Structures are given as structure tokens and as C-alpha cells.
């Protein structure tokens, strides 16, 4: 079930990636609901997802890298 929440979070982030402010807001929400190991997965996914999208890279700062 928890893996499903991680997949759901990724799908939401992909859908809202057109708007950097909304994307960051969804990242913040994800950090509140995901488990620690899911946050690690999300961190890796965000780094790779935002690599080609510089307008979204500032949202990775929310992850305290």
C-alpha cells in the first residue's frame, strides 16, 4: 500500500510540473505524508526528474540535501 502512495505522489508531481510553485507545494505535502524510506526514493527521483527542468530544481532544496 505504501509503495502505491509513492507512485501516486510521483504521478501528481509529474502532472503539476508545468507550474514550479505548485510543484514545490506538492513536494512539501509529499514530505509530510511519505515514510522515511519513501522520502529517500523521492529524493533520488526528484534529482533525476529535475535534471532536465532547471525551473524546478530549486524545489529540491526542500529535501535538505
How does this structure look, described?
The protein is mostly helical. The protein has one domain (2-63). The chain has helices at 2-15, 20-33, 36-50. 14% of the residues are buried.
Q: Quick one: how many beta strands? A: 0
What's the number of structural domains? 1
Structural class: mainly alpha
Secondary-structure element string: HHH
Note the overall shape: globular
| Unreliable stretches | none
Estimate the strand proportion.
under 5%
| Helix content bin | 55-70%
Short description:
This protein is mainly α and 65 residues long. 66% of the residues lie in helices and 0% in strands. The protein has three helices and no strands.
Draw up the topology in text:
Layout: H1 2-15, H2 20-33, H3 36-50
Descriptive tags:
mainly alpha; 65 residues; 3 helices; 66% helix
